[in-house]
Amino acid sequence: MIKFLKDNKINFVSQFSYAKYLSYSIIILGIIFYFFEGPTLGIDFKGGTELIVQLDDKLSDKENVIALLNDKNIKFSNIKTYGSDKVRILFEDDINQNLLSSFFNIVSYNKIGSTISSDLKYDAIKALSIALLLIGLYIIIRFDWYSAIGSIFALFHDILIVMTLLILFSYEFNINIIAAFLIIIGYSLNDTIVIFDRMRENIYEYSNMQLSDIINLSLNETFNRTIITSITTLFVVSSLFIFGGGSLRGLSFALIVGVLSGTYSSIFVSTPIMMFLRDKYYVEENEREI
User: In terms of CB atoms within 10 Å, which end of the chain has fewer, N or C?
Assistant: First the structure.
C-alpha cells in the first residue's frame, strides 16, 4: 500500500482536547441554525405537491416561472432550478394538474398527502434508531461497552455535523437524506471498527505500555489506510455531486460531509471517549477483583 506518511509518529492523543472544542463549536452552530432557521423539509416529510417544469423559449429561467405564478395568483412554497433546463416547484396545497398544464410544460407531477408524509417521518426515525441500536449491540459483543459508547457518540456526531451543514447550505431534507444518513453510519462505523480492532490487538501485545501510547501507536498504524480509503470514497461521491444532477445534489453533498466527518470522528470522537471510559472504569473493575 502506498504510504503518504512513512513511519508515522503523530501524537493524536495530545490533539483530542482541541478536536473536542471543534466538534462542540460545529454542533452548537447547528443547534442555533436549527432553532432560528430550521431544516428545509422536502415533500416527503411535509406533504404537498411537487412539480418539475421544462424551461422553453417563453419560460427561459426561474424568474420567469416565479413571475407567471405570481401573475396567476398561484401560491407556492419553494422553487429552485433542477438541472440545467428545468425548474422544481413545491406547493403546500393540492394543485390542479390540468390547470398547471395550461401554463407549463410539465415533466413530473408528484403529490404526497399529510398521512403518507407522517408515516415516512416515522419510518425514517425508526430506521435510524434500529440501526444505532444494532450497531451498539454489535460493538459490545465484538469489543466492549467502552467502545460501544464511543462508537454511538461518533455516529450521533456525524449525523449532527451533516445536519448542520445541510441546514447551513439550505439543502432539502427528504428520503435521499435519510438514505445518506444510513450510508454515513455504515461508513463511519467501518472506519471505527478497523481502529478499535488494531487497538485491541496492541493492548494484548503491548500490555506494559500506557493506554495513551497504545492508542497513538494504533492510530498511526491505521492512519494511512484511513486516509486512502477516505480519499478514494471522496472521489466517487464528489463525482456524484458534480455530475449526478439536481435530484442527487443533496444526497451527494451529505455523503461528502459524512465521509469527512466519519474519518474525523473515528479518530477524534470515538477513540477519546473509549479511552476515557476504559482508563476510568477498567482500573476500578480490576481493583474490585483484588
Answer: C
